[in-house]
């Protein structure tokens, strides 16, 4: 499209436009509404609905405004008799096969067809013949279908093809038989699939869990921000009678455009889970008793005092969820510090934080999310954004479609929805050396040497994939190096960060960290860290990081929205630590069985939408939201709970009148914080890194000795297992992307195990997996060539695998 | 001379007799008073009385929980909650009318796409405790069941004018 | 995780019903006529579907389409779109030894094609899109213009054009099929 400016006239108004842009876009910008169904600004133009017919001077017939390109001097009439007549005619045709079952249709009241039939249609239909009916299809637990209502605009087909990246729907048959269908009847598998609900201009595709719950006109809409990844997508939350009923996207061109992930939309279905904590609970002699807030808070405080007297302040540790609000993280950190301890952390899924002293103020994307689509060479390290930050994946996909070379260096191959320029999957113990090899290859081309601390990491010669990646990075003008969630939870994450930052610098591009949780960045700013206070000020005392806290087996733990069996890097160690602790206070929205076993006091926490707060996303953008839903039973906002605890502990400086005061304090402190993604390797002691000595585990290689095969363990948190709310969302857990606990190995490894090669999916074989001294686990085995040889992939973050410990390590496997 | 004629008239009880004449005329004319509750005045088929929910002939409730009556009600007397019934249809879990709020305007009946909520001819009903003013779905449906023949007949009579 | 395994499942299914080498060779001959890029591979979908349909006794099954989609690197739904759009592809159900397409588009329709379709349906005892129980004849679903308007009404039997149809001609042609 050229940038040439032209002047056109629409309905007598002279407006400026770019030559060649769609007429409807120019009209939209000028505020002149032209009715449409199939046109959407983020999708390709097909001009199939014909609703946007307008009259253009000297054109013999009405033209579709979406497919007509603007040319200089064009004179357009959108409301002339001819245009209106054309629109009325199209509307009559569209309604011929539409069932007009608006009273039972969930779209009723927010339906584009209703609105436009009113605005552009005729009052009475002349069609008296029978209407067609179309059999419904089951598109899975997220999207309800009523295909008789479909008007074949194909927005859903185009979305799945162009944005989600896999054309799962198509227009089957033709003419009057045309129907939108998967044909095979399989549920939708895209992580963005539910956006077709918003795109559908009629009620053919609707929100399945929300079905028949409320009408559009009785819902109140509030702005909100997604809390399930570090993107911070803009949402609108719709409430009815004080309860959140559904979530829809709110447009934000710089973050999520008009899309949200299914996770953002359906996590709310977990809000009223059966194990939601309704009132404070206190454990006495092993029995849980319902208590009032005062009683529960004093029980919590009494326990903390006991530990303070018996063990001193260092015996207290706080584990705060990285998806808590900035205010909660700040107050939690301050309460612990006011007690004299510095054992506070929100980096629950990180095992190696040895570079924390040199780290920048917060893990930063290195630029904005929107800029990612401008990149022309991207290296993803230990990352699968499609399941970790789906809207980052969307930006990367846009870049890939524009010709960017996207490369992935990771622990397995994934189902990417774009062509990768390079994909290299290595066993976890080789990730560092492979990344170092990329750095080395870059260094050779740039005639630079690896810093002292990182020298010796590349194991021998630089591998071919590493060389190719370095070459492509250098060829790019806007290179981006991104470190993903799997790399961040790697046992040598600090070395990976240093290497990736170096690669980013040498390739002349930017380096960024993809934040896993809503406040992974905010926790750093809020001072929920053992070594830094708010705004990165150095802490007077040095405390223990999350994993160290768990290993130190402290006498007292304060948990904020943490489910130890899911959310911690080493759930086995966490379980042991919490079991031996004298006093565990859990501020939590949900009370899982395991939490009830280890906690002594349970304080009900206001969940998503019930509490105000601020989230800092991966690009360092602060986004504050209000609490919009009624509090659930006795649950209270986290910032109030922490203030109340502080006051009962007689700590100074916690008398905040409202959350705005807390926010102002943090914002004031962080005013001068500059984002940065520098992890200077030079400053590190060289002893901290070695080629294959992780801080806690050195995965061995496959060996056939004994009864089993020893394999390196790798795993990532599945898309719908990231936080307590998502894990409790029934529709998400029933969707095809829901986590399945199974051991995935390469065909070579399967042979070693004595299982014939065939790549099996319906895992009939079971294996026994044994990690360290823990009890063995029996898992179904899946054979897949996406896994590097010598590695077994077992998803992390699932309670059933907690005994295996960290996501990475060594396990022994034998076939059953 | 006025005072004298007035005096005569009152002396001869003329006003009284005039009054008695009126009384006498009504005494012998046909009575218009109805002995409520034994007797009832005739009602128009469009009479707007007590609310009821109707069923189809096969016993299926008509209401589809579209909530149009709820939103059109100027007195906000109707409260509806909906869900998906096991057979996949859209149904109410709660349909309540606050009869103290209801102003019998008939908008709900006008708005109903399935002729479910109707105003019956019933105009006499009482409540003894405060809570009884709110009628639930069961009560409204049983009203409909009880008066269905009358409701249907009234709708049939009015049909040509709608 | 399940997505990934679903994909494997698909791969697995594709392996089961993988194209034979002979089929691949025939499809490759078509591919050679188009540009060697993804769009070019897409262009070969119609001839490739014909290859598979001819090999399978005149009908396509879903696993053929899945296998072809994987071979051409196309989304399966896109191949289904093509296969369902054209009446020359016969999907899912088995078809008879002979395929009869009676044109019902404008020229033929004006010359009484509707009546001929009804006659053929009655004669064979099946509706459009169905196959006679003896597996002899399939009446292909409603057919659009077959480019024989000059001799309307017309029909195509196993690729051969028959024009200027009458009921008698239909009797003659259909009875002549084995």
Topology:
The complex is a heterotrimer of chains A (816), B (162) and C (178).
Chain A: E1 5-10, E2 13-18, H1 23-29, E3 53-56, E4 63-64, E5 75-77, H2 81-96, H3 112-120, E6 143-145, H4 155-162, E7 170-172, E8 179-181, H5 195-199, E9 205-207, E10 220-225, E11 234-240, E12 243-249, H6 262-266, E13 281-284, E14 287-290, H7 293-311, E15 316-320, H8 326-338, E16 344-345, E17 377-381, H9 385-388, H10 390-401, E18 405-410, E19 422-425, H11 431-446, H12 464-475, E20 479-483, H13 485-488, H14 493-506, E21 510-513, H15 522-526, H16 546-551, E22 556-560, H17 564-567, H18 571-580, E23 583-588, H19 593-598, E24 601-604, E25 613-616, E26 622-625, H20 638-648, H21 659-669, E27 709-714, H22 724-727, H23 730-734, E28 743-745, H24 747-752, E29 766-770, E30 777-783, E31 791-793, E32 809-815
Parallel strand pairs in A: 1-5, 15-16, 15-22, 17-18, 17-20, 18-19, 20-21, 22-23, 23-24, 27-31, 28-30
Antiparallel strand pairs in A: 1-2, 3-4, 3-5, 6-9, 7-8, 10-11, 11-12, 13-14, 13-24, 25-26, 27-32, 28-31, 29-30, 29-32
Chain B: H1 2-11, H2 14-28, E1 51-53, H3 68-72, E2 78-84, E3 90-98, H4 107-111, E4 117-119, E5 134-135, H5 137-158
Antiparallel strand pairs in B: 1-4, 2-3, 3-5
Chain C: H1 2-16, H2 21-31, H3 38-43, H4 45-55, H5 62-72, H6 76-85, E1 98-102, H7 106-110, H8 113-124, E2 137-139, E3 155-157, E4 160-162, H9 167-175
Helix pairs in contact in C: 1-5, 2-4, 4-5, 5-6
Can you describe this structure?
The complex is a heterotrimer of chains A (816), B (162) and C (178). Chain A has 816 residues and is of the alpha/beta class. Helices cover 26% and strands 18% of the residues of chain A. In chain A, helix 8 runs parallel beside helix 20 (638-648) and helix 11 (431-446) runs parallel beside helix 14 (493-506). The N and C termini of chain A lie far apart (62 Å). In chain B, strand 2 (78-84) and strand 3 form a beta hairpin. In chain B, 35% of the residues lie in helices and 15% in strands. Chain C has 2 domains: 6-85, Arc Repressor Mutant, subunit A, CATH 1.10.10; 98-175, Glutaredoxin. Chain C is of the alpha+beta class and 178 residues long. Chains in contact: A-B, A-C. The A-B interface holds A 102-104, 108, 211-215, 217-218 and B 64-68, 70-71, 82-84, 89-91, 113-114.
